[in-house]
Amino acid sequence: MAAALIAKGMEPQADFLVIDSSQGGRRWESRWHSLELLSDARSSALPGHPMPGDQRRYPTAYEVADYLRSLEEALRVRPVWGIRATGVKAREYGSTIILETASGDVQTRNIVCATGAAARPNIPIWAPALDPRGPVLHSSQYLYPHQVPPGDVLIVGGGNAGVQLARELSASHAVTLSVRTSRRSGLRSRYVSAAGWREGWLSGRSKPEPLFTESYAALERAGVVVVPGVASAGGREVVFADGTAQTVTSVILATGFSPGDDWLPMHVRVARAPRTRTAVAGLFFVGFPRHGGRRGNTLHGVWRDARAAARHILARP
User: Fold this and answer.
1) pTM of the model
2) Which listed residue, 84, 101, 139, 248, has the most CB atoms within 10 A of its CB?
3) Which fold has domain 2-119+258-315?
4) 270: number of CA atoms within 13 Å, CB side?
5) How many Å apart are CA 162 and CA 230, to the nearest integer?
6) Using one digit for the tens of pLDDT, what is the confidence trace for 7-61?
């Protein structure tokens, strides 16, 4: 979004400001160490700002974090870290709106929600009832195999994240993969999950993401046991949809993410509006396929939505 505004002649820190609720560290840097994007380097960058190195490779999370830092420097954008947006309030008159933050309110003409279509971990309703000997981790908390005690581990979620973690842990643990929705296998393409949040790249779409890593059959050949989805859980026991039960030691929830738009009014979040715009004048979405292009949560696709939002912002009376 910053790059799109700069391309229209706006000056960072003078004409617009980027804020972020984190304290300066990006989530890319806290992802599991072996994570790679499902899209190649040439399709995981903004136009005119290619990633360095082999364009055919699949970048790691750390490479994406480094790339975003280099973009900040190239664009001369200085994000203000540690500012959490909490709400938006439309004024009864005039062309300004109010951004509510944990640090105070700000009056502005335009607000762009770029907090992500896959920003908050989804935790199944049965997960709090689990009390195994080992940890219960969401995939956003998992870093490496030694984080999981020796023995068995149940991975819940049959998407690309669950499959990759099952493969990684199969070398050192007895892995069971719980699959609620079977996914077909596909080939990596230029436009798959350039944003890197593998569990959530199809947020807002009806079809489950294909498997771009390995098939379930390949996992089974590697010793992974594939079972149906979880129906309920309690203590150390998990009951699957076919009625079978299993005592578990450790659990990893590869159950995806929800959009980071919960700070916006409900009517804005659920309404269908023209691309990137909302029912609140001056409030825009970027990075949400539901409110923009179908690949709007990828670095390649978000550029088109950012340019559209920049045009709308400059055309506002």
Assistant:
1) 0.84
2) 139
3) FAD/NAD(P)-binding domain (3.50.50)
4) 3
5) 14
6) 999 999 999 999 999 987 788 888 888 888 888 898 888 888 899 999 999 999 8
